Amino acid sequence: MSTTWLDDVFATKKPVIAMLHLAALPGDPAYDSTGGIAAVVRRAREELDELQAGGVDGVMVSNEFSLPYLTKTEPITAITMARIIGELLPAFEVPYGVNVLWDGRASIDLAVATGAKFVREIFTGVYASDFGLWDTNVGEVARHRARVGGADVKLFFNIVPESATYLAARDLAAITRTTVFATLPDAICVSGATAGAPTDAEALKVVKAAAGAVPVFVNTGVRAENVGSQLDIADGAIVGTYFKKDGVFENRADRTRVEELMGEAKKFREQLV
């Protein structure tokens, strides 16, 4: 496996993918039934405009405000996300992916239904998490992906999940090597403890060294001041919280902050030519 698929999808080295965090959806505890889905769509469209105007290389749509998360989502979640993405389709100017937290099968279904190029999820491992005991079945998900025609959907495996601890007594390098060999990820994501939390540079180096030709993305904690040093290790970055107004997770995307980080990312990439 090589990183050429990144070039094909994003047409740039070291792509920066922005998170488009949807407001709470029907069935979620924080859902605003008064504003309804129209309000969710309106906010999503406004934030997509801010992210794309700021120069991001890709966008990943997620139900980030569906807290507390389920490890097997209710059907209404992916169905509503499909409706929202369908309304946004004419506005996408960059490649887009999806993430139905924390449900790999639902994420793949949503990608196939909406034409998304990639998904990010926890596809492997068993964890003790804030959401209970978290078990996965990558073999079942891989077969489901094939059955629904999702072979071209690229899978980002998060092997250091947020809010969870891996139960097996194995080090990060060993987990990376066996994940690559046995489960065939298209990319690997390395995270901090929560959304917006710094990703440990040493952990990122360990995963990069063990991943071989599989691309490695830094998944949380990327900021304008560290994007160059993080991309010096990783093959790309996924950014959510920093792009929000004042860098606050609950706020909306802010074009000024997007431009700031993307300016630094582009300066770093110019050195690679």
From TrEMBL:
Task: Specify the domain of life of the species encoding this protein.
Answer: Bacteria
Per the UniProt record, one Pfam family is BtpA
What family does this belong to? Belongs to the BtpA family.
- PANTHER family cross-referenced by the UniProt entry: SGC REGION PROTEIN SGCQ-RELATED (PTHR21381:SF3), ZGC:162297 (PTHR21381)
Which NCBIfam families does this entry report, sorted A to Z? thylakoid_BtpA
Stated name of the protein: BtpA/SgcQ family protein
What organism is listed for this UniProt entry? Mycolicibacterium hodleri
